[in-house]
Amino acid sequence: MSLPPQTDWRASIERRLTGTREFVDDTDPEALAAVLVSMGSLLAAFVGFLLASPWTAVPFGAFLIATGYGWARHQALVARAVTFAMTTVTLVTLGLIVVFIFAESVPAFRYETASAFGVSVPGLGMFTQARWDAVSDPVRYSLLPMIHGTVMVTAIATLVAAPLGVAAALFIAEIAPPRVRELVKPGIEVLAGIPSIVYGFIGFTVINPWASGAFALNGGSTYLFVGMVVGLMALPTVVSVAEDALTSVPDVMKNGSLALGATDWQSMTSITLPAAFSGVSAAVLLGVGRAIGETMAATVMLAGIPRISEPLVNVFYGYETLTSLIARGYGSANGVHESALFAAGVVLFVTVLCLSVGSQYIEARMRRRLGGVE
Amino acid sequence: MSRATQTALVRDDRTLYEAAAGTAVGLAGVAFAAGLAALLGVVAIDDPVVGFELSVVFGAVLLALGVAVVGFGMASRLGYVDAAPQPSAGIVAAAAFTGIWVAVGAIVSGAVGLGTGGRLGVGVVSGGIAFAATALPREDIGSTVPAGTVTVLCGLSLVTGVVGPGWEQVLVGYNATLFGDTVVPAIVLFASLVSGWSAAKAYGGFGARGRNVGAYVLIYLVVCSILAVLVGLVAFVTVKGLPGLFNGFGVGSAALISWPFLTNGAGLLADIAGVFPALVGTVWLVIGAVLFAVPTGVGAAVFLSEYAEQGRFTAAVEVATNGLWSTPSIVFGLFGAAFLIPRFGNQKSLIAGMLTLGFMLLPLVLITSREAILAVPDEYRDASAALGVSKWQTIRSVVLPAAIPGVTTGVILGVGRIAGETAPILLTMGGGVLPAKSAAPDVLGSFQLSASPPFVSNPALLEATSALPYQLYALITAGLSGNIQNPQEYAWGLALTLLLVVLAFYAIGIATRYYFRRKLHQ
Questions:
Q1: Is B96 within 8 Å of B214 (Cβ atoms)?
Q2: Other beta carbons less than 10 A from residue A78's beta carbon
Q3: Mutate which: A64, A206, A296, A355, vs B, most B CBs within 10 A
Q4: pTM to 2 decimals?
Q5: Total Cβ atoms within 10 A of residue B50
Q6: pLDDT in tens, B302-340
């Protein structure tokens, strides 16, 4: 049973080898040398940089010289090699992010080892108790208060961004006359451009004092208004992705419905929205991801005390989210404390990456279905 | 035959009904706007309007709206007007009204003084009645009576003064108090929304057309409020920031234009504190990020769309790119702090900030460039290939020039996005709260050659540098105080400067898109 795949594998390697051999035979040896020197020195420079070697400049210089020479003499081949190297940068970056933030978070996970069913699991202590205190004994690094804060803010933000975002996307994609669309679409793009620290600044100087008076609170930090502000910031993401999904529904489908005498709204709810459902839910997922990762508004508007609000759903008090914990604590922290901030980063990164991959999977499925393959 | 006359295209007897329903929609719209104004504190709910307190007037309006909405439904049900209702209002409306009436029942019974169990019971019973009243009767009753009664109830509570100015309710356990000042506007907003939707349905004569009108009213409202928030935000920051931005601004003195806020630092020597070092920092930050990300992103896009065969490698790159796009900015900051800082002199530095933002910009550039390159029609490539032009020559002189509009737009919008980022540079670049003018980085002037590795060095790149968004954050954490004359005014001026820088990128990006699109369609 295992033979066919193995032979396939072997055959494919052989095919590759012959292909490479032919390529080497066909190519000008000088061009080949230039490309090899350029790519080799780039790799050496990367390794040198990773090792923090002061000699990194030497292979990097060699890369520049070899590439420059190759560019002048054998542009086509060098261009292909250089663009390939550039393509790997995204993969390498993602890999480096994973390696570095995980590596930095190891001490915190070790410190918070707890045993479950007689097996000691590193990092479990971050989720089984609720004390975060980096200064006074007992020093514990629970992420639960911050996870609670992130969940509260994200839930409120989603309640704001999802319905408003989908409605606005419907408007832009289906309802608006062309002239109005040319006004609304850039408007929503501009909304995405307002820096988060400006939102935070308005929240800190205007919303927090107002909320403090309007609800007679101790201090003005509330998950309610942080969530609303973050929802406003996640809105453009939802709108643009959902709008792409709605416009990608073929016009013939909508026209068929309209030709049967359905109203615009009937066509939207029974044809366009169901057909684009995956895309629209991917948009909401990406919006949720943005809300989870939003940092500055939360940092500036929240109280900065790692505590779980009482009762759990008390939206009138806001303490800390995963993002604001990192932004506030980094720099003054060191040792295990700093490592615990990286652990918070790991939780954020993994959550958002899962959301991103999930939404890509949903979108790919929708494209296949609309393409008529499935 | 009788059916044909019923659904005639011209129905004279409905004009009065339509006019009444249209007026109700308009009234609900006015009530919504006024409620918003009251919530924002533009008007107070105890302001006298035609001899009554505003909250009583609100109540009267809601009462009228509620009665009108029920009347529309009755008129249609009893056959006085010629509408086209469906057998039921539908499951979505039923679910919505069930939810609303569960809440209403619980709140009212709580106000009467029932305990948790009683509130739950009353809520469930009223929710059940609302469900039956919405789902079971014909659409014209189902979508008006539950909406109308809830509006009447809201109106009654305001007219009778059960809820009004001076009303307050302590939320036990939450350590918070609800006051009439916020609750009355909230009631008005909610009730005008519900009754406005119901009146809009009546205006459309229920049925498919009525639902169309009802949904459109809600969607237009959503879009208008989003745009209002946008305009309000920008206007607010502008009004608050102008005094700081133009502090000491003058034309025609020693220099042609003197603009101390943009050309001064915040040191002791400056009589008017300015943001020059942070502005220069932001400019260099953007330049550095663009120099790293744009060639890399465009090159990768070329390889992915022109050279690579669609397979695992391209799929992996695509997943990685989208993953990087959605990675939170603070995680990029952590990465920069763990990866770049130890490799550039072990301290926060300009170049670490540049590269971190470059990593963030890379996926944006890659995604938009790839879309732009894929949008170039294959005919261009085929025509070029038919002339015997090599692949690389085709890419260089046919594909890339055709893709430049899309790439440019994407890059400019991406730059606008990263120019306002705070979290990554907070962890990697740092800088002072109120830097003096001498703290502005002089990158071009400080390249140095040396005989020992790394042979080229640039101290300006290796120093902690301030940038506009970081300085704003630092000012906020310093409690908006500092060794300058008017820190509040200074901070708002700084916020406006940052907003203008970012919006300028967006304006240029959007204008570029229009310019190229019009050129394309000529």
A1: no
A2: 23
A3: A296
A4: 0.88
A5: 5
A6: 999 888 888 888 888 988 999 998 899 999 999 999 998
How do the domains of chain A map onto residue ranges? 3-109, 143-370
Cα–Cα dist B159/B184, whole Å: 11
Candidates A90, A185, A222, A319: best to mutate against B (most CBs of B within 10 A) is A90
User: What pLDDT tens digit does each residue of chain B (522 aa) get?
Assistant: 344 444 445 555 567 888 888 899 999 999 999 888 888 878 888 888 887 888 888 899 999 999 999 998 888 888 887 778 888 888 888 899 999 989 888 888 877 777 788 888 888 999 999 898 888 888 888 888 889 999 998 998 888 888 878 788 888 778 888 888 888 889 999 999 999 999 998 888 888 888 888 889 899 988 888 888 889 889 999 999 888 888 777 776 666 777 777 877 776 666 777 888 888 889 889 999 999 999 999 999 999 988 888 888 888 898 899 999 889 999 999 999 999 888 888 888 888 999 999 999 999 999 999 888 988 888 888 998 899 888 888 888 888 888 888 888 888 888 888 888 888 998 888 777 778 777 777 777 777 777 666 677 777 778 888 888 998 998 888 877 777 778 888 889 999 999 999 998 888 888 888 888 787 766
CA B441/CA B501 separation, integer angstroms: 19
Per the CB < 8 Å rule, is B304 touching A87? yes
Contacts of A221 in chain B (CB under 8 A): none
Q: What's the CA gap between B396 and B376, in Å, rounded?
A: 13
Residue A187 touches partner B, C-beta closer than 8 Å: yes
Non-local CB neighbours of A71 within 8 Å, separated by 6+ positions:
A78, A79
Tell whether A217 lies on the interface with B, counting CB pairs under 8 A. yes
> Residues 164 to 223 of B: which have CB under 8 A from any A CB?
171, 173-179, 181-182, 208-209, 211-212, 215-216, 218-220, 222-223
- pLDDT at position B269 is 65
Q: Assess B458–A contact: CB distance below 8 Å, yes or no.
A: no
Assign domain A143-370 to a CATH class: mainly alpha
Q: Give dist(CA B293, CA A355) in Å, integer.
A: 25
Q: Which of B226, B329, B417 to mutate to test the interface with A (most CBs of A within 10 A)?
A: B226
Pairs across A and B, CB distance < 8 A: 288
The three-class DSSP label of residue B133 is helix
* B40 in contact with A, Cβ within 8 Å: no
DSSP 8-state secondary structure symbol assigned to residue B456? E
The answer to whether B473 and A300 are in contact (CB under 8 A) is: yes
